[in-house]
Amino acid sequence: KQEVTQIPAALSVPEGENLVLNCSFTDSAIYNLQWFRQDPGKGLTSLLLIQSSQREQTSGRLNASLDKSSGRSTLYIAASQPGDSATYLCAVRQETSGSRLTFGEGTQLTVNP
Amino acid sequence: ETGVTQSPTHLIKTRGQQVTLRCSSQSGHNTVSWYQQALGQGPQFIFQYYREEENGRGNFPPRFSGLQFPNYSSELNVNALELDDSALYLCASNVWGYTEAFFGQGTRLTVV
Known about the structure:
The complex is a heterodimer of chains A (113) and B (112).
Chain A: E1 4-7, E2 10-14, E3 19-25, E4 30-38, E5 44-51, E6 56-59, E7 62-67, E8 72-77, E9 86-94, E10 102-103, E11 107-112
Chain B: E1 5-7, E2 10-13, E3 19-24, E4 31-37, E5 44-50, E6 53-57, E7 64-68, E8 74-78, E9 87-94, E10 102-103, E11 107-111
Parallel strand pairs in B: 2-11
Antiparallel strand pairs in B: 1-3, 3-8, 4-5, 4-9, 5-6, 7-8, 9-10, 9-11
């Protein structure tokens, strides 16, 4: 059974700092991994999708890396802003599970002005 | 291109009642998945629908059921509501397979 863990559970940083969010998964037979952002009480916004054959994916100030063999992904946020404050979730899609996503519990990020 | 939309946004029900939640998939998407998110936790997969049939189910009892319609929209039905069913219910759509999933804004269900 796939298990996804995100560390840290919460993070508070000053504005402008570069930061790294971590995601690990126990079963390396994944097809892809997706990072999401969730504002309080809202739905999920897709940030980046990284295929199992890729090492990195970038979008603006965000960079996601994937090491499938070691079961790890990181989300790097450059020059953080107060508007980045949200919960960040990673989710993996198994090679045999179709559209089903298995989520971690998220990292709650607060960026202080 | 319209995104994933869910209705209603909020709902309060009494224990033992039944509820129906609705989801319209993003244009061009043929697969809908439903997730339950308890407060402070990550979303948990309930089931997914493709070609109007359930195609994969998580660890949820049979009182959680669903439908998918020919236009790919979907309903989630929950019978005999329990207090623990209080959660944010999320719908996601994508093209069948391993493509990027897009989520709606969720329905907040409170069972009292």
